[in-house]
Design goal:
The protein contains 17 helices and 8 strands. By secondary structure, the chain is mostly helical. The chain is globular and about 55 Å long.
């Protein structure tokens, strides 16, 4: 079903007004139009129950900006409200009170083309109010997140966070809290989740779903008893303490065993995994109706974008080009300013004075 939803030619709108986790993510994140409200609570919390993200999340998460997807896959952190839109999971944001109006507008469209659907949703956007808190994962904290979660092993992620947690600022507090969350998770699940999200970045949608099917089969065939332990502890007994994971620490989880049991094509624990019979993928049949990805903003700054012509840009020129590409997309300027403040410097050399320089 997730595969069919992700390959629909007919536009469909997912209204994420409330808890959007697990299977709810599968129903919504593959839609071309994903509408968040102030009630939206998005997460893939599977590592909390000794399992790993599925429903195509290993295709979607690694395609979010920077290492946000890795962070969400491992920690199961909940994103709320407008942050779900600003971090690229939702394509639009409207107040929940305007959902009836949205449904009426969509129902009244004689020809529900993608552009008309987009316009109907955009008209109901609500600007950030003065007392609304900014998203937490921006600025220095976001840079720290990208640095830590870009590491290639869970142990190295933990080491990076441990160093950051020594800082006496908000980023240090975030790092310390993140370490506490990771410590509660199944060590086996953390290593499998990291392996899946890394592999998913280079997979097609269908390949990612097939990988997830193999991972599910391995868990059910006894590759780890943590799935049973986690479901019992968290969902049945509703314990507040750390479940009794086996193995109980990252050091006890062999990377070689994780590969052989979960990812090796010859693993006996995935041999009976159902082979998904999927129609040929249609690929991207639509343009993105969400905010521009950080990578695309970077391409425009670097002059490598298909529309750049190799030219450097000032901030005003960057905003103008993005408005040409995205039109009057709500939230565009805020996204660009946040990315530029974190990833760019202003050149002072005579030839390109005032132009932006992308900081890797």
């Amino acid at each position: 079903m997730n595969y069919e939803l992700g390959n629909l030619v007919t536009p469909y709108v997912a209204i994420m007004d409330g808890i959007t986790m697990g299977g709810g993510v599968g129903l919504s994140v593959h839609a071309p139009f994903r509408v968040a409200t102030e009630n939206t609570m998005f997460a893939m919390p599977e590592t909390k129950i000794g399992y790993v993200p599925d429903v195509g999340a290993n295709y979607v998460l690694p395609r979010l900006d920077g290492e946000l997807g890795t962070y969400l896959a491992l920690t199961g952190t909940i994103l709320k409200g407008r942050a779900v839109f600003e971090h690229g999971i939702a394509t639009h944001y409207i107040p929940a009170s305007r959902i009836p109006d949205l449904k009426a507008r969509l129902s009244s469209l004689e020809q529900a083309t993608a552009d008309l659907v987009d316009a109907a949703i955009e008209e109901l956007y609500f600007e950030r109010s003065g007392d609304e808190a900014p998203p937490a994962l921006i600025g220095k904290t976001r840079s720290a997140l990208d640095t830590a979660f870009s590491r290639q092993t869970v142990e190295d992620i933990v080491t990076a966070l441990t160093g950051m947690a020594e800082e006496q600022d908000d980023t240090g507090k975030w790092a310390a809290a993140t370490l506490e969350e990771l410590n509660l998770r199944s060590p086996t699940s953390l290593k499998v989740a990291l392996g899946a999200v890394r592999r998913g970045k280079s997979m097609t949608f269908g390949e990612a779903l097939q990988m997830e099917m193999c991972l599910a089969t391995a868990f059910l065939n006894g590759a780890s008893e943590d799935f049973t332990t986690g479901v019992t502890a968290v969902l049945v007994d509703k314990v507040k303490h750390r479940p009794n994971w086996v193995p109980n620490s990252l050091a006890e989880v062999s990377d070689e065993k994780v590969f052989k049991d979960f990812f090796d094509a010859e693993s006996p624990l995935t041999a009976n995994a159902p082979h998904l019979s999927l129609a040929k993928e249609r690929g991207p049949v639509r343009r993105s109706y969400g905010l521009p990805a950080e990578d695309e903003i970077g391409q425009l700054v670097l002059g490598s974008h298909r529309t750049s012509g190799g030219k450097s840009v000032t901030l005003d020129e960057l905003l103008a080009r993005l408005r040409q590409l995205w039109g009057d997309k709500h939230g565009l300027e805020e996204k660009v300013l946040e990315v530029v403040s974190r990833r760019c410097k202003v050149r002072q050399d005579p030839e390109r004075h005032g132009c932006l320089q992308w900081v890797h």
